[in-house]
Amino acid sequence: MPCSPFVKLPIYPTPDPEIVLVETPSELEKQIGVARRTVTATYEDAHARVQAVVSRWIGVEQAVENRVKSLIAPDEPLTPGILYVGVATLTGSVLARNRVFWRLALPPTLLVLSLNHFLPKTTHNVSEYLGELEDAHFPTFAQKHEIAKAHSAMTWERIKDATQSGREKFSTGVAGLVGRVEEATGLKLRETLGWRDRAVKAAEAKTLEVVNKVEESATAAKAVADAKVEEVKEAVEQKVAEQKAEPPKRLV
After folding, report:
1. Distance between CA 218 and CA 104 in Å, rounded?
2. Rounded distance, CA 100 to CA 91, Å?
3. pLDDT in tens, 185-204
4. Residues 45, 47, 49, 51, CA torsion sign
5. What are phi and psi of 85, to 5 degrees?
6. pTM here?
7. What torsion, rounded to 10 degrees, do the Cα atoms 186, 188, 189, 190 define?
8. Could you tell me how far CA 25 lies from the centroid of its own chain?
């Protein structure tokens, strides 16, 4: 069939063709986009790290604050005590300014002594905390420290005993000397010095202490005896109850 040179028009109107615009960025725009995304990611990463550091620092501050509050005794005011400690430490530094050894040794010694005197409970809490840290991180050093503390305590007790015995010997010698002077001169030096009243009071205190110990021992012995009597009573009652519970035996 031969092609007709005429085009047959449609009966209905034809819709307009859809025009699609495709955005094609240039190479410069692509590079700018890559750089912007890189800068944004770097900024967000740095911001997150800074926030993590800030959060960690806030946690450290809160932990330190809680630890300090737990170490400070609530019934010990810090305001005058810490001032006295500082004054004592500075006094040691001033007194030992001309000698190197004492300048290094005296201020720390006065610091420790003043802390134990003006803030005893807080000092005890701090020493306990340092002992816990020492046990946790340096156990070997902690054992050596405990051994040194035990030896120091034993040495201190020996010094106290020696001082007490020396004082007693000195007092006994002075009392004997005064007695001989009284015998030689007839003067009542003991009454003048008040030693007789002190001796009487010491004897009364010793007697009262002995009486209290005897009463405590008697009370403890009585409690033990009462407990034994109760045990015997319970055993007898239990035995009687068992005998009553047993059926009577019949003679065959």
Report:
1. 58
2. 15
3. 766 666 665 555 555 556 55
4. negative
5. -65, -45
6. 0.45
7. 130
8. 69
